[in-house]
Amino acid sequence: MLNVPSQSFPAPRSQQRVAAGGRSKVPLKQGRSLMDWIRLTKSGKDLTGLKGRLIEVTEEELKKHNKKDDCWICIRGFVYNVSPYMEYHPGGEDELMRAAGSDGTELFDQVHRWVNYESMLKECLVGRMAVKPAVLKDYREEEKKVLNVKGGIKYGIQHSTSDVFSPVTSCNLDPGPYKIGTHLHIYIFSCLFLWAYLSLCGMLPKSQVTDTLAKEGPNYPSYDWFQTDSLVTIAIYTKQKDINLDSIIVDRQDDSFRAETIIKDCLYLIHIGLSREVQEDFSVRVIESVGKIEIVLKKKENTSWNFLGHPLENHHSLIPRKDTGLYYRKCQLISKEDVTHDTRLFCLMLPPSTHLQVPIGQHVYLKLSITGTEIVKPYTPVSGSLFSEFKEPVLPNNKYIYFLIKIYPTGLFTPELDRLQIGDFVSMSSPEGTFKISEFQELEDLFLLAAGTGFTPMVKILNYALTDIPTLRKVKLMFFNKTEDDIIWRSQLEKLAFKDKRLDVEFVLSAPTSEWNGKQGHISPALLSEFLKRNLDKSRVLVCICGPVPFTEQGIRLLHDLNFSKNEIHSFTA
Ligand code: FAD
Ligand code: NAD
Fold this sequence. Notes:
Helix content is 20%, strand content 29%. By secondary structure, the protein is an alpha+beta fold. It has four domains: 96 residues, Flavocytochrome B2, Chain A, domain 1 (Roll); 102 residues, Sandwich (Immunoglobulin-like); 105 residues, Beta Barrel (Elongation Factor Tu (Ef-tu), domain 3), CATH 2.40.30.10; 135 residues, Nucleotide-binding domain of ferredoxin-NADP reductase (FNR) module (Rossmann fold), CATH 3.40.50.
């Protein structure tokens, strides 16, 4: 069935039809798939009507282009002529028209922040928004103010009072770390000047300028650094207690050092061009009781550093997560193993210079260049097996990330992923998702409703629930598939249920053969009301649901009908 393209494109289960967040998509005309769009962008056709010229667009000008056949939209300060894209937009023309002639950044972020529009719409780029004269004046005022301020930075890239881009004036080599002395702001002023200048010239998109505004305050995170002969330690003070090793992502590439700390709904970013070379590997420690993170870098040469480095984009900023772009690093394909006739277990290895742990229930985005256009799709990491005794290859710091991925022969992304050879690279983003481990607190009954690859978030949940929730009495998985051959890890699930009596697994098939004597059909009131029995009347319950969007939507409706409250349901979507 997989190989037969349906008359209506994209297929009902296609991500091109299914919006992030579960909104319905409109059917696209024949010849208007993403691949067709990519072909059009490569055809050399003038898609902006400006013959390749890039212009500065004023708000007045932008407003004029608000019709279907002449539609400009601004995203993060860049203006695109989206008229040629209208018929290819999976969300339909009307959705695109909601942002016609205006700044569509917020709308875009609400719906599909992860979609790589820069690459998809590059041939539609008209230019960048011009900075308004009023804003221009403000920048000049700010510039003047900043230059008159001696003790600190009031605008743009900000620094804590323990700023480290300063020469060391006093060192204490033995014992313990060097001490940091006076502050040198010349460098920072130059950066600020350059930043303000670029903004004045309209060379940076408007939102980027405003997004970097950071506010100091008693609860604002800060950082510091110290060194010994061989080590440099960067300490981040989050001023929060609920942080752990999942909260910090570190990437080092050449001399650039980047540490994203997740603090509630924001990211605190340390982004520095290091002044000296360090070795590839490093260690990360979290002192949870005080909310402190220590990243210990190994110097390449045992010499004293005069300063840590220079600030890079958005350094020392606390940015709402919804406003941050996704950061990608290149991961190497280590192994690929068949799990069913169309689903494979991929193992990717993080670069040695990355620290990243994907929290339970979260997904990442994988990115590949397909005929010159960067295509991004979400995937949910799993563990290498359902059994905790499974041994992963010995490598420190959870360097391996596993994915169960179904290959759709006529899909855009998965056939390309499947073509990768062992040793090839694929880019992987930082994790995203709304699931929080706190949802498991004092949990007694856990119900998992999974359909097809919607099983993927359930893998880590199962591992965690059966080992780490002391209050848990029962876990029940209802796993919906088309045929027996489609069931992922069937024998592992059966073995696990046999081993751990708290686990029950029920398979439901929507297109079984005549030999199947188990449950059949689609998700329904009859199936759910029988399956979702609480252990006790008032037991603390969580129902997790994941699968094709119509499955999830229908499941949520049925769960409400069965009197499960919002807090008792977690649905997985992008
Ligand atoms: P698409 O191009 O989107 O095509 C999908 C379907 O449409 C296929 O059946 C294909 O045959 C059909 N189709 C394509 N072109 C045509 C055409 N011209 N005419 C008719 N039909 C056509 N998937 C996993 O396997 N594992 C995961 O862990 C996982 N995690 C996810 C996490 C999240 C948060 C979300 C939202 C999705 C996740 N997915 C996962 C789904 C994944 O993101 C992709 O949607 C999926 O891999 C399909 O991608 P594709 O580009 O290969 O297929
Ligand atoms: P599939 O087509 O093999 O279908 C599996 C089962 O889902 C079917 O047997 C049926 O019981 C049910 N189903 C399918 N379409 C339905 C419909 N219209 N109404 C009710 N039930 C329906 O599934 P697949 O190809 O493995 O697709 C899995 C889906 O799960 C994809 O859409 C993928 O994007 C999604 N997914 C989402 C996440 C997430 O959001 N975190 C993670 C993984 C997968």
